[in-house]
Automatic annotation (TrEMBL):
It comes from Desulfofustis limnaeus. Residues 23-274 form the SAM-dependent methyltransferase TRM5/TYW2-type domain. This is SAM-dependent methyltransferase. Keywords: Cytoplasm, Methyltransferase, S-adenosyl-L-methionine, Transferase, tRNA processing. It comes from the Bacteria. The keyword GTP-binding does not apply. GO terms for biological process: methylation. One of its GO terms (molecular function) is methyltransferase activity.
Length: 274
């Protein structure tokens, strides 16, 4: 039974029209977006989710947009247990996290798997903005990469990343650094075969240091938010940054991997930099 069916006798017809059909699930926590006209019904809606999905133990509603440097989404618990800590499983990788302290989106799972499927033997990979380490750990489990380094500034996210690395027995392949990519990437003096930049909206400001850390012919994955008419702008920004670094860029792919708002997409530009 879906949520609308479960609530068809409890909500007014106009309230049912406002109700979304789906919600995200992270571990045993459901996260739903409710419009303000349904706020006074939130407990009823939360309990309906608990009733139709026995795996769910907590229901939270989004209480604003994911924002700030650490991209944390404000959440309000509306039913179930009083916690935002859980363990999520993604393509066989276990991810322990607290949604009140770190960023995580289960919607990017397929995109992380897409990245892992592109990797060839023995690559060295840098994942900037690595959060609780979903990308480093998926790459470690599902790709033939030799080494993966994740860099994350939020010490809470880094704390969970270390737990997750241990949980997934990935200590040999994955190194996790806590700090600002601006400080840590140039000072490590390393050149990588592949660099992943999953900070849409801001990743572009870090292109100069990413390109500098990429070996000739290396692959870069730049995430951005753009309306469809502006996709070319993100490609042009990467082209310009490559040119300014005395390098050339080849566009390999541009994929749409989610939504930011009804008219703005989450995109990834896959490029090789020579
Ligand atoms: C959109 S989240 C993505 C996290 C992770 N890659 C994921 O998909 O779950 C971006 C992350 O970048 C981190 N971050 C933001 N600015 C940073 C910086 N200058 N250096 C390192 N990490 C940064 C934030 O704390 C946040 O965890």
């Amino acid at each position: 039974m879906n949520l609308k069916q479960a609530l068809r006798h409890s909500l007014e017809p106009d309230e049912l029209d406002h109700l979304v059909r789906s919600y995200d699930v992270v571990g045993d926590i459901a996260i739903i977006a409710l419009p303000p006209p349904l706020f006074h019904r939130e407990t009823l809606i939360g309990e309906a989710i608990l009733n139709i999905n026995k795996r769910i133990k907590v229901v939270a509603r989004r209480d604003g947009c994911c924002s700030g440097e650490y991209r944390i989404t404000p959440l309000k618990i509306i039913a179930g247990e009083q916690r935002l800590e859980t363990i999520h499983r993604e393509f066989g990788v276990l991810l322990h996290l607290d949604l009140g302290r770190v960023y995580f989106s289960p919607r990017s799972g397929n995109e992380r798997k897409r990245l892992a499927d592109m990797v060839v033997d023995d690559e060295s990979i840098l994942v900037m903005f690595s959060g609780i380490a979903p990308a480093p750990l998926l790459l470690a489990k599902h790709s033939p990469a030799a080494t993966i380094i994740g860099v994350e500034k939020n010490s809470d996210a880094h704390h969970f990343a270390l737990i997750n690395r241990k949980k997934n027995r990935a200590e040999k392949k994955v190194s996790l650094w806590c700090g600002d990519v601006i400080d840590l990437v140039p000072s490590c003096g390393m050149k990588f075969d592949r660099i992943v930049m999953p900070l849409p909206g801001s990743a572009r400001s870090f292109l100069r240091l990413a390109i500098h850390a990429l070996r000739c012919g290396g692959h870069l994955h730049l995430y951005d938010f753009q309306p469809q008419s502006q996709f070319g702008e993100t490609v042009a920004a990467l082209q310009l940054a490559s040119h300014q670094a005395g390098r050339t860029m080849r566009l390999d792919n541009l994929v749409v991997c989610g939504h930011n708002s009804p008219s703005s997409y989450r995109i990834c530009v896959d490029a090789s930099i020579f």
